[in-house]
Amino acid sequence: MPDGIRLELLDGLSQGHFQRAVDEFRREGLSSSRISSIINAARSLYRWAINREIASEDPASLIQLPACDSKERDRVARPGEFARLIGRLAPQDALPFALAAYGTARSQEIRALDWPQVDLSGEVLLLADDDDAQKSMAARRVVPIARPLRKRLEAEWVRQRRPTEGRVCPPRKKSRSGMISLDQLQKRVFRMWEVSGLDPIGLQDSRHTAATWLDHAGVSPKVASVFMGHKAPGRHLHPDAAPITLRRYTHVLPGELERASDQLDDFLAERERQEGEA
Fold first, then answer.
1. pTM greater than 0.85
2. Residue 252 confidence class, pLDDT cut points 50, 70, 90
3. Are residues 230 and 121 in the same domain?
4. Which of 54, 91, 101, 247 could form a disulfide with 49 if both were Cys (CB 3.0 to 4.6 A apart)?
5. What percent of the chain has pLDDT over 70?
6. Looking at 48, 73, 98, which one is the last position of a domain?
């Protein structure tokens, strides 16, 4: 990090530290979207810390970010907008998108998800239990099932005649891998959305949407990283970066994932209501 920024005390960092960091990132060639993501992560951290009286103010709140240097790569949907998008699809087609946005599942995790990894009574999913579905050791995780996802999983379980094994999202036709082709699914539903005059959203962007919702719901960065199955980058790459220390030296307390699930459910319900009124 430029200018000797170190995570000793959150209150020890100033607005100048962050602004000089942004300037240095630009000189290093980072994109404006990447820089914004870094600063937004810091803002999320400070919001979490201020709520717990660990920090008194957010020095990143007034940072001047670089103008977008290109069209945004990532597509993020509002809660009500996303609900309307997948509401236009057949339930089988909507479920993979629901798993990505409401359950933070990656494409390979969706393809490999089996019914024994879905605990509807306990309201949790076990993601990346299959070795082929693991992007990293952090990928294998238990994720609380958000209310909108639970409804769709229950309906699919009933449609499949309450199975005890097999794929949650089975292939539409005979498949050598025994897994659904998500590329074909996306191509097909994109055409349907475009014909309806809707802005399509892909599965990867649905995961970006999940991360955005967790942030806006006020879920702490540490808990959100567990939800998303993110692995901390090596300390040798960014030895002084605050997110690294956060991941390495903080831990998720018992009950925090369930609390985060409630925060997300409340956020989704409130935003969908507001969008409907608008």
1. no
2. low
3. yes
4. 54
5. 81
6. 73
